[in-house]
Fold each of these.
Amino acid sequence: MLGEAIPLKLTGWAWLQTGIDRRIIGWDADACAWVASPPVATVGSSAPGTPPRWAMTVSHRAVQLSEPARVLSDDMLGAIDQFRAEHHFVASQSNAAISVRLWRPQPTGRSGPVSRRSA
């Protein structure tokens, strides 16, 4: 069997880019902790303006996503600091950048009605 049978369930999640891979950080209710996922391979598609509901890691573990984070909390930033200390690449690179991106709806390209007035 590929990957772990039990999906990682994250709420209050955000994208975590380490410079060498992309992960998802979020609250894992089963572990009662903020966790960073293994590197992400794919993300499920979703309707415009709707956050993705799942992702799959490189190690074939399913990640269920709910309620993307709206702000970065102190607890989430603390988990990122801990991840930075424990991650082999980031820990070895004192100036390695980690970026955190909150999920935001993308513009759909539709614009509202345009009113025109003649002079």
Amino acid sequence: MTAKPPRAVLLDAAPAGQDRYGRNHPLAIPRVSLTVDLIRAFGALKAEEYRVPGAAHREELAAFHDRDYLAALERAQAAGRASAGERERHHPAGCGMRYGPGWTAS
């Protein structure tokens, strides 16, 4: 008899206090980390119900972000900073999106 898969899985993008989002990113709200802390403290999840996802691939990011914006982030990552024009047009890191090394899985 095979084991039943978990009914639900919690994906925690910022485990153990890691900050994966800048302070203005929509997912950088304290209630997310506090909720995860409470769930774990009360033992409400089994080990197989808790997962830490890897970095998103470019195509996965493109489902939520404009391709021009992603290209601007790639240029900022390569240069180590965003140009004034790209900051004006796309606001890389202005909304909290990180563009340093490893922001995407390619």
Amino acid sequence: MESRPEVIRLRDEEPIATHTWVLDPGLWEELLAAHHFTVTATHLLRAPEAGSPVVMVIQTRRRAGRG
């Protein structure tokens, strides 16, 4: 599993160079659990354009053992 370089462009801010991992929600949950996080909700936000493969995964998570 490798990351890919990505540049995040926010309005009125300098571009931010970062790395992105593109994983399916199940794999994200496995990786988070391996680091003691519990996923409490997963939401998939699909691009508004018909037929677009772009999906953003938003997860609510917390450290295991914490309320």
